Amino acid sequence: MIKKQPLTRHRGIYLLPNLFTTGAMFAGFYAITSAINGRFETAAIAMFIAMVLDGLDGRVARLTNTQSEFGVQYDSLSDMVSFGVAPAIVMYLWTLSTMGQAGLFAAFVHMAGGALRLARFNTQVEVADKRYFQGLPSPAAAAILAGGLWFCVENGYDVENIKYLVLLTTITTGLLMVSNFRYSSFKEIDFKNKVPFIVAIIAMLVISFIMAQPQRMLFLLSVGYAISGPIVTLVLRKRKLQSRKS
């Protein structure tokens, strides 16, 4: 009788998508070290670089068919560093540290909100509606803080005059991440299909505006996206009520 050889399991990880994830985590770490050294504009830019790399790792994994459970968990840990810990520490070092326990509380709310947001996302990823995120995504929450910081530093604003606004914004981003507001995931958009020529022109104009005034445009876009959550949630609830009545 011929004995069947046991199946050998190949241990290892996919290199390409995890390189992007590692790059995103390093950008978040670099943002922290830059803030420690007082280079807050560099810290804000580093967080935006982390967002770009974080958006690429998942797409690269899908395009190359290299998705894995390790990649999912590693991406979450990277997001926690880049969009949970980094923004909280950067904002604390920039202005919240001058506000005593209130500033410490605000920074912790954002960090804890990021942790809870990622934990909830990981546990609901198989059953959640792919068209929407529940709660503000952590990269968008970090973009609000990084964009606001970059805008203020670029325009030479005195942080003493806006510290209470910074405090409120930092707490708000943390709470929005754990809220039940629905945010569009844009996953229903198919980039492979053809689009009217006007769409290409609009995309070109948007990119031009962002490149011309990145600190202002990125901040406004992230704030607009944060506001869209309550609006989308109210619209969906209204449609649900109308369908029940009919």
Automatic annotation (TrEMBL):
Q: What residues form the membrane-spanning segments?
A: 12-32, 131-150, 162-183, 195-212, 218-236
Kindly give the membrane topology term recorded for this protein. Answer: Multi-pass membrane protein
Q: Which GO terms describe its molecular function?
A: CDP-diacylglycerol-serine O-phosphatidyltransferase activity
Q: Check the record and name the Gene3D superfamilies matching this protein.
A: 1.20.120.1760
Q: Which PROSITE patterns match?
A: CDP_ALCOHOL_P_TRANSF
The protein's location, in the record's own words, is: Endomembrane system
Q: What class of enzyme is it?
A: transferase
Q: What is this protein called?
A: CDP-diacylglycerol--serine O-phosphatidyltransferase
Q: Which organism is it from?
A: Methylomonas fluvii
Q: What is the lineage of its organism?
A: Bacteria, Pseudomonadati, Pseudomonadota, Gammaproteobacteria, Methylococcales
Question: Looking at the Swiss-Prot or TrEMBL record, what is one Pfam family this protein matches?
Answer: CDP-OH_P_transf
EC nos: 2.7.8.8
Cite the entry's keywords alphabetically: Lipid biosynthesis, Lipid metabolism, Membrane, Phospholipid biosynthesis, Phospholipid metabolism, Transferase, Transmembrane, Transmembrane helix
Similarity annotation: Belongs to the CDP-alcohol phosphatidyltransferase class-I family.
Q: Which reaction(s) does the protein catalyse, per the Swiss-Prot or TrEMBL entry?
A: a CDP-1,2-diacyl-sn-glycerol + L-serine = a 1,2-diacyl-sn-glycero-3-phospho-L-serine + CMP + H(+)
